[in-house]
Amino acid sequence: MKRVLSILAAAVLLVASTEAAPVPARPITKSKGNTLSKAENRPYQVGPASWYGKQFHGRPTANGESFDMFELTAAHKRLPLGSYVKVTNLRNSKWIVVRINDRGPYVGDRIVDLSYGAARLLGIVGVQKVRLDVIQPETLASVQGYDGLQ
């Protein structure tokens, strides 16, 4: 019995020790104070976000596709169509990555209009303060597991 338990313990230790640590998608640059550089930590934009859904479902977006209120998409005034943005709800720290496929919002000082599906995952009801971080294509590919090799 002791032999079985020792073999089992050795197997568990072997499996636990072979777990790989996550590898960052790109090298982290540090400044003198051993903290991330200010440029690394600076958001693209911070401000109020709203959402749109049923009223626009099925209608064409700025890039020509039909708006699907359940997809993880958003409207932004200036970002290139097709770009990806990490949206963080500053009230509850939930975040998701959305694709910019439309233009807007055109109400008040809002910085982004999220699809209903995106707003729901972020826990946004009405207007909420968010942080936007532009995701570079190579970062997105590495997060999704694509390395460009065939």
Class from helix and strand fractions: alpha/beta
Any low-confidence stretches, pLDDT <50, length ≥5? 28-37
Characterize the biggest β-sheet.
6 strands, mixed, barrel
Helix count from the secondary structure assignment: 4
CATH H level, superfamily name of the domain at 41-143: RlpA-like domain
Description:
- With 150 residues, this protein is of the alpha/beta class.
- The chain has a domain at 41-143: RlpA-like domain (Barwin-like endoglucanases), CATH 2.40.40.
- Helices cover 23% and strands 25% of the residues.
- It has helices spanning 2-17, 38-41, 116-122, 137-144, and strands at residues 45-52, 73-75, 84-89, 95-102, 112-115, 128-135.
- The chain has a 6-stranded mixed β-barrel.
- The N and C termini lie far apart (49 Å).
- Residues 28-37 have low confidence and may be disordered.
